[in-house]
Every structure is written in C-alpha cells, then in structure tokens.
Design brief:
single chain, alpha+beta, 7-stranded mixed β-sheet, 7 strands, 27% helix
C-alpha cells in the first residue's frame, strides 16, 4: 500500500481530555494507541508536546507506554491514525503551537515524519512548521500564523 493511500485511511478516534492536555485514542488491528498533547519540558518554547504510544505495551527498550518503536508491524496504519489526530487537533481554532520529535537514530521514522509534515503543510496553509535538527532529535514545531487570542477578560467594551 502506498504511503499516500495510508494517510487517507480513516480510523475511529476517541477524543478524551486528561489532566495534562488533550488525549486521543484509536485502534489498529486490535491494538489501541494513545496520542497526547501535553505540557512537556520544552512546552514554554515550542508549545504543547505531542506524542503517541501503544497503550499498555512495552517498547523495544522495555518501558511501559514509552515513546519508541513497538515492533507491531503496523507502523504505516498507525501513522495514518496519527495523521488523522493531528488534523483533528489543527482544526481547533484556539490551538496555536505544538511540537513533536523523531530520534535521529530512527531514520525511517524521520523520513515518515518529513512526509507527514509535507502533507500537513499543504492541507493547513495557516500553519507553519519549523524543523530543528539537534544532536539526538529532529523536532517539528507547528505554529498557526493566523491566530486570534480569545481573551475572555477583555475590558475594551
């Protein structure tokens, strides 16, 4: 299956809010994935952090729900679900800034993220994406360029 076709594949997304931000779930081949937007160590600079994990499973490094390669063999279908979650999030008018990253030691993930970003930029022209390559990670920082701050305390009436 071509990557372009997979990015168009739809999965059922459950939208739920958690204490740290926004959280979404979807299922691929009987496995549930959790996508979260939350306050991370670099949130002040880059907005909410986004990541996804296989719910309740250990990753290749043996940690529970740790971001990393899970080895399920469903990576392209999973990225289709991730793409759908990102589109859902980006369509909400008050969201302005978020980021995610790929480990440079995972070149296939970096390449797939690059392709996802290219599609997102084309579909969401009101968002810009800055790509920052560091020593360990390639970080994708999305910012809505046409953004209104909805301040409920505005006393200009």
């Amino acid at each position: 299956m071509l990557i372009n076709e997979l990015f168009k594949k739809k999965v059922e997304i459950t939208n739920r809010t958690n204490d740290e931000g926004k959280s979404y779930e979807f299922t691929v081949n009987g496995k549930t994935y959790v996508c979260e937007f939350f306050e991370g160590p670099r949130s002040g600079e880059f907005g909410l952090e986004f990541h996804f994990v296989l719910k309740g499973a250990k990753t290749s490094n043996g940690k529970d729900n740790e971001v990393g390669i899970t080895g399920t063999g469903d990576e392209l279908e999973v990225f289709s679900g991730v793409m759908q979650v990102l589109k859902t999030y980006m369509n909400v008018r008050w969201h302005r800034l978020f980021h995610f990253a790929a480990k440079l030691e995972e070149p296939s993930r970096v390449k797939l993220y690059d392709r996802m970003v290219k599609r997102l930029k084309k579909e969401f022209p009101k968002w810009e994406c800055e790509i920052v390559t560091g020593n360990l990670f390639q970080t994708y920082i999305f910012e809505r360029v046409e953004y209104e701050d909805f301040d409920d305390d505005d006393d200009d009436d």
